[in-house]
Amino acid sequence: MKIKTIVIAPYPGLSELTLSLQNELLEFEIVVEHGDLSRVLPLIGRIHTEGYDVIISRGGTAKLLQKHSYLPVVEIPISGFDILRILTLVKGYSAKCEMIGFPNIIEGFMSVSSLMEVDISYTVIHQEQEVGAALADAKARGIQVVIGDSITVKMAAENGLQGVLITSGKESLMEAFSRAGQLYKSAEKLKIKNEMYEAMLGKLQGGYAVADQGGKLEFANPLFKHLLKLPETADTLYTMYPGLREMFRDAGRGQTLTGRHPFMSLSRVCICGRNCCLPRMNAGCIC
């Protein structure tokens, strides 16, 4: 089965490069979507419903996806070749240049520029909303050429500045796909183990569940749900059984009600409010 991968490309050239490499990436089913920081959030809902295994993007777009998506996000690195290409391009510029970008991009460029003896000032930003102020400040200081990602270059042009786009080469994109493949394979192994453990717990005679301190069920075998009369779609215990909140008051994530095992164990539970017991916990009624 191929690894279903979506590449969010902040600029058209990255889309074209990705599509040109499909014959070299046969283990992947690749979909390319153009989207920068300003467009990526509306895409997330659709990405989550279309069954992708992994997302690949770069720069600030990748960082934003990592914050808002539960899918694994692989960031396309800025390689030494990428940096050399840009620095070679701007080295002969007589105009004052400045780089504006996220920390992960700035760090690599500053290291290589010092080795090449290319003096370029820089401004570090942490979110898209800071780009406008950074550009205004650069322009006020006499900067004429701005080096940055797609959103920075676009806004630089709107402010009357020349923009130089940091692009990713083939080697950077291939490295990202290699990481995506490794990540997917590791996740699949973990998924198989989890399914095996769930199957084992599902066959045990007692009722077992894993819940966090908020009462959210991470796992519950069928007998546990039957004993507590929980619907199949139940994802929390406290709504139906608020008494459990006190039992979990000092428990850590996944702590058992007995405090000895990473799951709750119930042999029988009273839900009628009378003559009830939790034999293994000696905790009384939870109704």
UniProtKB/TrEMBL annotation:
Source organism: Paenibacillus sonchi
Domain Signal transduction response regulator propionate catabolism activator N-terminal residues, every copy: 27-188
InterPro entries documented for this protein: Sig_transdc_resp-reg_PrpR_N
Designated name of the protein: PrpR N-terminal domain-containing protein
GO terms assigned for molecular function: ATP binding; DNA binding; phosphorelay response regulator activity
Native organism taxonomy: Bacteria, Bacillati, Bacillota, Bacilli, Bacillales
Matches recorded under Pfam families: PrpR_N (PF06506)
